[in-house]
Write a structure and sequence with these properties.
The complex is a heterodimer. Chain A is α/β, with parallel strands linked by helices. Helix content of chain A is 36%, strand content 16%. The two termini of chain A are 18 Å apart. Chain B is 36% helix and 28% strand. Classes of the chains: A alpha/beta, B alpha+beta.
Chain lengths: 118, 141
Amino acid sequence: MLLSDIKQILNATVLWGEDHLDREVMSACGSDFMSDVLAFVKNQALLLTGLVNPQVVRTADMVEMKCIVFVRGKVPGQDILDLAEERDIVVMTCPKRMYEACGLLYYNGLRGNCDGND
Amino acid sequence: METIRLVYPVEGGDLIEAGEASSKMKLTLKKLGLPQDVIRRASICMYEGEINMVIHADGGQAEVEVEMDQIVIRMIDSGPGIPDVEQAMQEGYSTAGSTARELGFGAGMGLPNMKRYSDEMTIDTEVGKGTTVTIKIKIPQ
């Protein structure tokens, strides 16, 4: 699924990386807990989270994410956006809550692709 | 390939800035052309180690050796030490405070994650003196 599709499905606003919406992600994960992201994520290139701090970007970078979507309308500060730009990670915000955002993407074909329990 | 040695200071105190050393190492490993999976595992281990160091030990030092067939990462601190290593290794056990939790950490996954992604992990610790966590990650030939 292209990031441009994700933007449309979630009615999201792109905060950094408008020029990179042609990038494709094959699976996603949703979590507010970064240690779980580090523990269980494998090849998921999209992170949905309601947690807003620079460690979200660092965590996403460690596991090679291409895009972070902040749910529940959360808008990160410029420090977080600068960090995302430096790490080349697209950032969006969407008004939907986590459950609904994940559900919409799943319904439209973007799976979790997690080991064992997907 | 000769062994490459890298040393990164880990600043204590500021958990929001933690992770810079891991990012730098990750960039260096990429430049060395190591396999993506090896880079990813090494980066996650060091990142969790770095977070641990900032939460529990007011920083320390990360020493990385890139050898022909493995990466060795030593996370060295002069913090309070770990009284019960077996307990610290249990997923879900944590002594971290609320700041760590607010940032998405501190729920007892750090050391277990480091073990999960390493091929070998040893913990040398002494209460009141400090802790050295050594991680080895094999490089497939």
